[in-house]
Specification:
The structure holds 2 protein chains of 2 kinds.
Chain A lengths: L3 E6 L2 H5 L2 H14 L6 E6 L11 E4 L3 E3 L7 H11 L12 E3 L2 E2 L6 H4 L17 H6 L4 H9 L2 H11 L11 H10 L6 E6 L8 H8 L1 H15 L3 E7 L3 H16 L4 E4 L4 E10 L8 H8 L23 E5 H13 L1 H5 L9 E8 L5 E6 L4 H8 L9 E6 L5 E4 L9 H6 L8 E6 L4 H15 L5 H18 L5 H17 L3 H5 L2 H19 L14 E3 L9 H5 L5 E2 L7 E2 L9 H5 L5 E3 L1
Parallel strand pairs in A: 1-2, 7-8, 7-11, 8-10, 12-16
Antiparallel strand pairs in A: 1-3, 3-4, 5-6, 9-10, 12-13, 14-15, 14-16, 17-20, 18-19
Chain B lengths: L3 H16 L8 E6 L2 H6 L1 H14 L5 E6 L11 E4 L6 E3 L4 H13 L9 H4 L5
Parallel strand pairs in B: 1-2
Antiparallel strand pairs in B: 1-3, 3-4
Helix pairs in contact in B: 3-4
The chains are: A alpha/beta, B alpha+beta.
Chain lengths: 596, 126
């Protein structure tokens, strides 16, 4: 029996800032102090507050340490674990009330407005120990389904809960299952889409890293509901930690007989295998994903027939997203009414967002549907840092759009986001401030889709390329007003004529920025000016003579020798030599360097 | 896995290990003085005895934790039990055996073990 538990985040974010070394050092120090029988060190999944990683939480006190380094470990062990004195300087400052008092994590602004269903076990359990998942009522939902419910009852519960696909499109999960269950076949499949590809989105990875069993359990439930005996998880090879923990989880579930033959003595057989994707964005599209599992080139095909009728290997298949699955065991245990009571009428439940960009608390948050963007950005996210102002938020990655500051009070759910020209997408939420150029952002996402277009259909393959060329022209100051009209026309053409979701949504970043920030496009064209000062071709660095003290710092740091001037006299930048790297602006102590 | 009972058995066993992570806002707190003076006087076996016994008794709303030196080093190991709405009880010169009795009498049955408290042991009390 351990008297203390030390939880260290083992998510990808904290791992990349050395949490593995911290765990090694902790074990070493604990052993040296003879505490190894008393203190248990546990590697968990993501806590969500990635901006403050590596994160360590010590129970029973619940002390939340942030930005821990390997050098801090001996102090934590000898002070806190041995002598019971919390190391105040390492505490997450939000939890510190005064010298002797701390408040619980759930009272901090980052966690207070969150509600964790899909992430309920992330940062709480050891994802590599099935027993800890079972301790949190894990596999109880599968037990209930197999011993007390008929497949039809399971589908009815899912329909009643109103759960919609968290991969982005928001199709009702129960309906998907109902269609697949209705189609007769000798073999069916229940698959999981873990090919998370949106730039900036990492919620699926975090669920798989922090709570892999919840996905396995839900897949088995889906298998029972539709009559499938085999499942596949399609996950990208770029997620090595998630892949490793999934494999450990599958092995442990098989050992316990929670996967395999005759689960819970019910006569139901179900097993799961992992299939690794090579990182093509298009393979997140369901038909392309299944083609890839079959061992063929990952290209989409025309629907119908939908996967519920002819999916993997031509058999009826359900394919759900990781986060969708992570909600299901809780819905079975607590009931459809409980789930419906959370969120909005048409979008029940919660949604996980990966907060990124110009925001203080970069990380993973889970909020009830209907929470406003303002609450997510200002309260949970801690606002825009550095005294800058919020300009827009981008949701849905390369398939989504921008929400301007004027719509910051929009309650977030599937239908509201579509109504304002964006989409939920998988849940990436990138915050932008006034230094971000909206034309440049549209160009960034277009570059991504041009790279990732599989090339099977012409509107997407050629159309996105042409879109990018026009954007290139505009951001380099050579665009005309006709180009903007052409851009818009081409966007609608690509949307209507592309084969799969990738092409159908690829123009969204352009369309939504045109809708809300058309003036920026116009400024690039008519005034040859980038209002945000982000487009290099349209920006010139300039030294304001009255502010310049002639300290020579800029001239000494300029990599191309474009700055000249005498000591104690105003300097000048030779714009023909300047490569617009911005070093002079960064180095100047008197704010004399400005972008024009 | 052949039955729900089998799953329940694993759950109950594993529950004890993760319980500790949810007790940060527990009702009753048992604070064991673990400064240098406390450790030297033998506070660690006392702390461990409390952890074992509280768990054995399944006291879900009790948290056993450490604290530093409260300044009465001659009485170490010192254990304080804080229950909201009641007066704080300070036990002194504790041992693992005494800890077991405190859990059973005080935490389970609500009877303070007066003979172990500082009041009964203070210099000049007898």
């Amino acid at each position: 029996m351990f008297r203390s538990n030390v939880l260290v985040c083992g998510g990808t974010g904290c791992t990349s800032s050395n949490s593995e070394l911290i765990i090694d050092k902790l074990n070493e120090e604990i052993k040296a102090q003879g505490l190894d029988k008393e203190v248990n060190v546990i590697r968990t999944g993501c806590f969500g507050l990635c901006a403050l990683g590596p994160i360590m939480v010590v129970y029973p006190e619940g002390a939340f340490y942030s930005r821990v380094t390997v050098e801090d470990v001996p102090e934590i062990v000898s002070e806190h674990l041995l002598k019971g004195r919390i190391v105040t300087r390492l505490l997450y400052q939000e939890t510190v009330v005064d010298e002797n008092t701390t408040k619980s994590l759930n009272e901090t602004t980052f966690y207070a407005k969150q509600m964790r269903i899909a992430l309920r076990n992330c940062g709480v359990i050891n994802p590599e120990l099935i027993d800890e998942y079972i301790a949190q009522d894990g596999y109880a939902a599968l037990g209930k389904v197999l011993t007390e419910m008929t497949p039809q009852q399971v589908i009815d519960t899912m329909l009643a809960s109103g759960l919609r696909g968290r991969g982005g499109a928001g199709f009702p999960t129960g309906l998907k299952w109902k269609f697949a269950a209705a189609n007769q076949a000798d073999q069916k499949y229940a698959c999981c889409n873990a090919d998370e590809g949106d730039p900036g989105a990492f919620m699926d990875r975090s669920v798989l890293e922090g709570d892999p069993h919840s996905v396995l359990e839900a897949m088995a439930i889906a298998g029972y509901a539709i009559g499938a005996s085999q499942g596949y998880i399609y996950i990208r090879a770029e997620y090595p930690i998630a892949v490793k923990r999934l494999q450990i989880a599958i092995n442990q579930a098989r050992e316990y007989g929670l996967l395999g033959k005759n689960i819970f003595d019910s006569g139901f057989d179900f097993d799961i295998d992992i299939r690794l994707g090579a990182g093509a964005f298009v393979c997140g599209e369901e038909t392309a994903l299944m083609t890839s599992i079959e061992g063929k080139r990952g290209e989409p095909r025309v629907r119908p027939p939908f996967p519920a009728l002819k999916g993997l290997f031509g058999k009826p298949t359900v394919l759900n997203n990781v986060e969708t699955y992570a909600n299901i065991p809780q819905i079975i245990l607590k009931g459809a009414d409980w789930f419906k009571s959370i969120g909005t009428e048409k979008s029940p439940g919660t949604k996980v967002f990966a907060l990124g960009g110009k925001i203080t608390n970069t990380g993973l948050v889970e909020v009830p549907m209907g929470t406003t963007l303002r609450e997510v950005v200002e309260d949970i996210g801690g606002g825009v840092p550095g005294g800058h102002t919020f300009k827009a938020a981008q949701t849905g990655g390369p398939s989504g759009g921008c929400i301007p500051a004027s719509l910051i009070d929009t309650p977030i759910d599937y239908d509201n986001l579509i109504a304002i020209g964006s989409m939920m997408g998988s849940g990436g939420l990138i915050v932008m401030d006034e230094t971000t150029c909206m034309v440049d952002i549209a160009k960034f996402f277009l570059e991504f889709t041009v790279d990732e277009s599989c090339g099977k259909c012409t509107p997407c393959r050629v159309g996105t390329k042409r879109l990018l060329e026009i954007l290139d022209k505009i951001t380099s100051g050579k665009g005309t007003m006709e180009d903007i009209d052409k851009l818009e026309e081409l966007c609608y053409y690509i949307k209507e004529n592309s084969l799969c979701g990738l092409g159908q949504t690829a123009p969204n970043p352009v369309l939504s920025t045109l809708k809300y920030f058309r003036d920026e496009y116009v400024a690039h064209v008519t005034e040859h000016r980038c209002p945000a000062g982000a487009c290099k071709a349209l920006t010139n660095f300039h030294i304001e003579a009255e502010k310049c003290k002639g300290c020579t710092l800029c001239a000494r740091n300029c990599p191309v020798g474009a700055i000249s001037g005498k000591v104690k006299e105003p300097h000048v930048i030779d714009t023909s030599k300047c490569i617009k790297c911005g070093v002079c602006m960064e180095k100047c102590k008197f704010q004399a360097v400005v972008k024009k | 896995m052949k039955s729900l009972a089998e799953l329940q058995a694993i759950r109950d066993k594993a529950r004890a290990a993760v319980n500790i992570r949810e007790n940060a806002e527990a009702e009753t707190r048992v604070l064991v003085g673990m400064a240098t003076c406390g450790i030297a006087a033998g506070a660690r076996p006392v702390l461990n005895a409390f952890v074992e016994e509280v768990n054995k008794r399944g006291l879900r709303d009790t948290m056993v934790t450490q604290t530093g030196c409260i300044g009465i080093c001659q009485y170490e190991p010192v254990v304080e039990i804080i229950t909201p709405g009641k007066e704080k009880v300070t036990y002194v010169k504790m041992t693992a055996e005494k800890a077991v009795r405190v859990v059973n009498d005080h935490l389970v049955n609500g009877n303070v073990v007066t003979e172990y408290t500082i009041g009964a042991n203070a210099i000049g009390a007898k």
